[in-house]
Design goal:
Elements (H helix, E strand, L loop, with lengths): L2 H49 L4 H8 L5 E4 L7 E6 L4 H17 L4 E6 L8 H12 L4 H10 L1 H4 L7 H10 L4 H8 L2 H16 L7 E4 L2 E2 L6 H12 L2
Parallel strand pairs: 2-3
Antiparallel strand pairs: 1-3, 2-4, 4-5
Helix pairs in contact: 4-5, 4-7, 4-8, 4-9
Length: about 240
């Protein structure tokens, strides 16, 4: 091979090597760029999530709304018990006698608030919540609340609609049946029930019954002794 050819071959090899080096550098830069972008996205997502966390003030507001149903109201406002419930929930039905015992014992020394949290897997959870809310619009929320729990075994966990049973309860309570039926089917009542459930989800409610005492989630068993201990602790602070 001539000297010129050898020189040309060497120059060509050097050029190819330079091109490969530049290519590797470009690829490396691109890889680093993608990694940095991914990191920025992750950090941004974390910051966004942190911003969306419910503040204590917002949590307190969403726990008890102005239109929340109060079965009793403490004059000093010191102790507030909030129950997220599903009228068809068997655990709520089991807790109901203990709740009534506590309500009778403490009376207006505590504020007792009921919030709707119907479970989709319960066939008449929404129907019963709508019935309670429709009764509330005629001033009979507590009466319907008791009717539904006192008779849960008669209407609960049946695949077919129990609307006729709830209408019977409305009649027994002396409600205007035409208005009751219209309210049960109204978008306003549906929105009211869903608003309670939305608040519950934001507060971390995952099942029923879920109790909050003075803004703190009650994680012990929802029985008379455990709830009484938490209420007594609140009253003596």
């Amino acid at each position: 091979m001539s000297a010129k050819k050898q020189t040309a071959k060497k120059a060509s090899a050097n050029a190819a090597r330079d091109i490969r080096k530049r290519g590797m550098s470009t690829n490396l830069k691109a890889t680093i760029g993608v990694a940095v972008l991914a990191l920025v996205i992750i950090v941004g997502a974390v910051l966004t999530t942190q911003k969306k966390e419910v503040s204590p003030a917002a949590a307190a507001q969403s726990l008890v709304r102005e239109n929340s149903h109060r079965l009793s109201t403490a004059a000093d406002g010191k102790t507030t018990v909030v129950e997220f419930l599903d009228f068809e929930c068997e655990a709520c039905g089991a807790a109901y006698p203990d709740v009534e015992r506590l309500r009778a014992e403490y009376g207006d020394r505590i504020t007792y608030v009921v919030r709707y949290f119907p479970i989709a897997s319960h066939p008449n959870a929404f129907n019963s919540a709508h019935a309670a809310e429709a009764a509330a619009r005629q001033g009979k929320f507590e009466e319907m609340y008791k009717k539904l729990f006192d008779n849960q075994a008669a209407w609960g966990h049946k695949e077919q609609s129990q609307a006729a049973i709830f209408e019977q309860y409305a009649t027994e309570l002396g409600l205007d049946l035409a208005k009751f039926k219209a309210d049960v089917a109204s978008p306003e009542v549906s929105a009211r029930v869903e608003a309670d459930a939305t608040d519950g989800q934001a507060l971390g409610v995952q099942g029923t019954p879920t109790f909050f005492i003075d803004g703190e989630k009650h994680n012990a068993d929802p029985n008379y002794d455990m709830l009484k201990a938490a209420i007594d602790s609140s009253l003596t602070r």
